[in-house]
Amino acid sequence: MLSFDTFKDQVADGTVDTVLVCLVDMQGRLMGKRFHAKHFVNGAWEETHCCNYLLATDLAMATPDGYASTSWERGYGDYVMKPDLSTLRPVPWLDCTVMVMCDVLDHHTHEDVSHSPRAILKKQVNRLKAMGYDAMCATELEFFLFAKSFDEIRRSGFRDLEPISGYNEDYNILQTTREEHVMRPIRNHLWDAGLPIENSKGEAETGQEELNIKYAAAMDTAEFHTIAKHAIKEIAEQQGHAVTFLPKWSHEKVGSSSHVHQSLWQDGKPAFFDESDELGMSALMKNYMAGLLKYAPDYTAFMAPYINSYKRFMKGTFAPTRIIWSVDNRTAGYRLCGDGTKAIRVECRIPGSDMNPYLAMAGMLAAGIAGIEEGLELQAPTRGDVYQGDTGMIPGTLRDAAAALKGSAMLRKALGDDVVDHYVRAAEVEIEDFDRVVTDYEIARGFERA
To answer: Checking phi first, is residue 392 left (phi over 0); if not, alpha (psi -120 to 50) or beta?
Structure first.
């Protein structure tokens, strides 16, 4: 991280000449502007502006109707981007560049825009702080690395995709050595940018990678995840390769997840730990986990925000299919990790690699808070192969998840009606766009035989 004084010194001596001034959009991407560093120092550090459509688009940056916050009728005005100078950090994979994250504020009131991802997570973190707890989280980033570049793949029509390796490389040192020209700069550049990188490894498929970042406060974790995902794409491109965070790019391959580990702390100590409990779970943790389970359908749309997200939930692929918890069991939607130790935590295995971490973690924290406030009782853990059974199923489609989000009284209370309605509309836009498109699958299956 950079102090503002150190940053100004670097601008003065020419070490830094560019500032990436970024917000996080609905899809979890970095959007913003590149400032000349001297102009930023001279005044832009206080605020800049952006079009308010940046929080009302789809993946392709279209401007669909149906949002209450902005529209053609209302003229697409401005939001204020307010740099959070505590987030200043170097961007080592780009020359002479630093980055700062922004809060998104209403142009007239200068209050947080309620449906901005940063504001949504901040609200839940502050609710926990008012209860005396700090939310600690970690995310795992899984993605596929391809032999060809983004441009080559795009020109081919995204066909004949070739992963960088030819076999399952889970924990495989030989194969990941061949990929070090990409993975080493990812680890090292992100570490130098101030992210507490732990490790990278091969994952359980051809060309699949995983990057792990040390746990931190929830807001920091969301920022680490977002910056890392952005950097992985840029660094891979610098090395001539494409990556994808699409959860299921081939029906013949396993999918990519983004597991979220979470725990609550109080006065610097893990509040989920109770050494007198058989598993080491405090009563607080049991209430929290019961909330996660009860309300999982409500926030599934935040963990799996696109049509493709639901293709990943298949038996026998290490992706969950049921809203069930178990002890150190990778077939369950929620896995208890570190049982019997102060490192005890819950790992939610439902989110895909396409999640927006701010939204997914906000939904989880809201559900956990509800579990605490309602004093929910946690049922006994499930044992064995959790794929065997048909109860407590994860919503099977985005349409089902959007309906659950729309009807969630808990999330409407925790996030606000305007926020829930905004992201319900985002899900509807994805569904409407997919429904109008004729796919290669339909043509190949029915062109002659229908």
So the answer is: left
